[in-house]
Amino acid sequence: MGIVITATGASHDTDTASSIEHAGRAVRAVLTDAAVAPESIGVLINTGIYRDSNTVEPAIGALIQKAAGIGLEYDEHDPRSFSFDLMNGACGVLNAVQVASALLTTGSTGRVLVVSGDTHPSMTGPDAPADFPYATAGAALLLEHTDGADGFGPLHVELADGPAAVEGFVDTDTMGVTGRSAMTVRRSDDFEARVLDVALSAATAALDATECDPATTVLISSRPTPGFRAALSAKVGIRAADDDGTADHVTGDTHTAALALAYHHAVGAGRLDGVERVLFVAAGAGPSAAATVYRVPAGRAGR
């Protein structure tokens, strides 16, 4: 038994800088791609961190569910949909896959949507402060249960010792009435090197636990910088899914949306043709990392 990706969606047009709108568009694209009705989605898990106007309540997952038109009817016999936030930085998407696997394996629901995306709380897009490191985008994965060995393998998590390599917070002492539109993100000078180390540990553990042919396995990483991808790819001996020179669809670090966004575009560009396994590696704040090997269903990469 396995958990597979049956459809993907993404949103990164510059006509909006709302993470909720981008996530809602990504979900609607998934529903269209999979040709499924909104009411067939049992659970929606949102893993985004940086949200519109620093909204805390209600859960952003509920707002995305509304934007996507899922579960808006409450008659007695209507199907029920449930949504919630699961926040663990860049690793959140793979944590959400863990949760979705439990729900789908036990039959609690037939379909789970994992949604991700971030924005600067001011929602000013290109005019956001230059020192904010994350790009605005949204992405979604539709997960379903399948018989057989296809799908996600065990998740391997690593957490480095020492002080946090990156911190994101609202500085209430200095922001005053601008707190709804302000955010401070601090990265240590050795952030990239420390994140690479912990990502390599998680990736190696995932590969050691699974038989993979490097010739038919590709790497998809949540760290979008070419230097990070190239270094991790070289260390694990597996080519990155976008090492063919194709230009990135989004400029900058898409943070929580990076894995789903990269997978979505890799499928659309045919980069997974002939690929049997995908090594997903997420790494970020902590520094922490998570990795899993995904066995791609034959002829069905999820889009």
UniProtKB/TrEMBL annotation:
Q: Which Pfam families match?
A: ACP_syn_III (PF08545)
Q: Which GO terms describe its biological process?
A: fatty acid biosynthetic process; secondary metabolite biosynthetic process
Q: Which residues form the Beta-ketoacyl-[acyl-carrier-protein] synthase III N-terminal domain?
A: 84-156
The terms under GO molecular function for this entry are: 3-oxoacyl-[acyl-carrier-protein] synthase activity
Superkingdom assignment: Bacteria
Q: What is this protein called?
A: 3-oxoacyl-[acyl-carrier-protein] synthase-3
